[in-house]
Write a structure and sequence with these properties.
The chain is α+β, with helices and mostly antiparallel strands and 119 residues long. 22% of the residues lie in helices and 39% in strands. The protein contains two helices and eight strands. Strand 6 and strand 7 form a beta hairpin.
Length: 119
């Protein structure tokens, strides 16, 4: 009877973790992008990514992060927050694999996402 209760508890916990989404890596946002034997990750510079992964299949400029703003400061000094461009680099892994879109803000890798299948 004790074995049955233990087996039922293990089965219940396995099913609970499976359906709660806690173990499904397919739904998580990617934080690492592999390029051959090396990889790049969120926070790397655009220079580093292109050095490791090579030239992207295509790229596009998708906007600005924020407008330049002047904040009130004591007389004679101003503080500015500068805008930075947002750029996406696309890496096509070939037929049947995913096309990855790497989003950069101010030349820093911020997001890695699968953008569909290659043709």
């Amino acid at each position: 009877m004790l074995r049955f209760a233990l087996a039922a508890a293990v089965l219940f916990l396995s099913a609970l973790s499976l359906f709660s989404g806690g173990v499904s890596p397919a739904f998580a946002e990617d934080t690492i992008f592999r390029c051959g034997a090396e990889s790049v990750s969120i926070g790397d510079s655009r220079y580093t990514v292109q050095k490791i992964c090579g030239k992207p299949s295509r790229s596009e400029s998708v906007g600005q992060t924020s407008k330049e703003k002047k904040q009130k400061q004591p007389k004679g000094s101003t503080s500015k927050s500068y805008s930075g461009k947002v750029q996406k680099l696309y890496y096509d892994r070939g037929y049947g694999d995913f096309v990855y879109a790497l989003t950069f803000e101010k030349d820093i890798l911020k997001k890695i996402e699968k953008s569909g299948r290659a043709r």
